[in-house]
Amino acid sequence: MRTTRVLCLSLCLLAACPMASAFAQETTFFVTSAGPGKGGDLGGIEGADRHCAMLAEKAGLPATGWRAYLSTQAMPPGVPVHARDRIGPGPWHNAKGERIASTVEALHGPDNAISRATALDERGEPVPGKVHDILTGTRLDGTAPSPLDPDSTCRNWTSATDEGGAMVGHHDRVSAIDQPWAKSWNAAHLSRGCSVPKLAELGSGGRFYCFRVVTE
Q1: Where are the domains of the chain?
Q2: DSSP state at residue 150
Q3: What's the farthest any 2 CA atoms get from each other in the chain?
C-alpha cells in the first residue's frame, strides 16, 4: 500500500512538471520582489533590465527578453527613452497566466487589468500594499517626462541621494486621493527623493515592473 501511494505521488509530481514549465514560459509580466537595494540607483536602465532577468531566472522563468518598465529624461545631448517603447507589442501575462493587457495601447488605456490581485511578483506572490509605489519615471501614456520637468527618474536611475525624485505608480490602484490620476499604475505622484529612506516615506520599496519581449 505504501509503495503504491509513493508511486502515485511520484506520477502526480511528474505530470505536473510539464505544466509548470509551460506555465513559466507564458509569464511576461511581474513586479520585482525587491529592488537592487540602492534606492533610485538601479545601475541605469540597463542595470534594471539585468535585475529583471536575474529575478526571472531565479524564479524559474525564462531569463531572456526582460525589460524594466522605466523611462529616462533627455539630458542634452542625449535623447529620452520611453517605457512604452521598451516592452514589445504584447500581450502580457502574470505568473498565474492572467492577461494584463493585449497591446501597448490597451496597457496604457482604462481597461488594462493591473491591480493588486494581478500585479504579482516573479514568484506569483502579491506585492504588499505598504510598498505600492512602483518606480516608472513615466507619464500616464508611457512616455518620458520632459527635460524641463523636475527630476522624475532619479537622474536616469543612477541616483540614491535625498535629492530629486522618481515618478511612481500604484500597482494596487489605491490612493487617499479619490482621483483617477492618483490611482494610476504608472504615474500617480513623485517620490520625495531617491535614497532608500526617501523612497520609503510615501511607500516605495524600490520595486519596478518587468515585461518580457517575446520574439518568434
Answers
A1: 19-212
A2: P
A3: 74
The closest of 111, 74, 63, 7 to 210, measured between CA atoms, is 63
Peptide bond into 80 cis (omega under 30): no
pLDDT in the model for residue 151: 96
Q: Is the pLDDT of residue 1 over 90?
A: no
Q: Measured between alpha carbons, how far is residue 85 from residues 60, 67, 148 in Å?
A: 26, 10, 21
DSSP letters, 34-58, are S--SSTT--SHHHHHHHHHHHHHHH
- For the segment 189-204, the average pLDDT, to the nearest whole number, is 96
SS3 at position 165 = coil
pLDDT in tens, 26-36: 999 999 999 99
Q: What is the pTM of this model?
A: 0.88
- CATH 3.40.630.30 given to domain 19-212: no
